[in-house]
What does this fold into?
Amino acid sequence: SGSIGDIGCFSFYPSKNLGGMGDGGMISTCDPKIYARLLKLRDYGRVSRYEHHVIGYNSRLDTLQAAILRLKLKKLNRWNEMRREAAGIYNRLLRDAKVITPYASFKAEHVYHVYAIRAKKRMNVYNKLSEKGITAIIHYPIPLHLQKVYKGLGYRKGDFPVAEKVSQEIISLPMYPHLKERQIRLVTDTVKEAI
It folds into this structure.
C-alpha cells in the first residue's frame, strides 16, 4: 500500500479506518529526491534550524497523534475485517432494493471506509434516515469539474455525465467496525421504506 506510484498519500482524519484524534496524514515514497523535498516542505521549508530554502508548511505529524495511530494500527486489520462483515450484511439486506451497492473486486480487498450506495431518490432516503435519527452523509454533491476552483479549466455541465449522475445519487450509510446487524437492519429497512 502506498508503493504503486512515485508517491503514496494517506489520510489519518478521525473518521478514516486508521484515524487519529485530529487532522493528520502521511506521504510515502522510495525516491530520495522527492523524500528530501518533502522533508523541507513539511517543516516550513527548513534545511537547518534557522535556514529556509523554500516556502513550506507546518505539516508534521505531532508525537501524540503518532502514538495514537501506532496503537490503532495494531487493530486495523481486524477493524477492516469487521467493516467487510458489516458491508456483507448491508449487501445481503439491500439485494432486492432499488439501489446500487458498492462494487468489490475479487482482485483486492475493499476496506469500506464508507458504505456508499446510489439511489435515484437520494433525498427521500436521506430525509427518512434523518427522521429516524440515522446519520447519513452526502459526499461530494458537486463533481470536481463543476467546482469554482476549477472553473478556469473550461469544463461545463454535461462534460462528465457519469460523474454528474453519481453526484446526484450517492449517499453514505453508517459504517464503522462495531456496527451491529440490528443497526444495519434498521438502516436498510429505512432505505427500503424511503424508496
About this structure: The chain has a mean pLDDT of 95. The first strand starts at residue 8 and ends at 11. DSSP finds six helices and six strands in the chain. Helices lie at 32-42, 63-73, 76-93, 122-131, 161-169, 181-194.
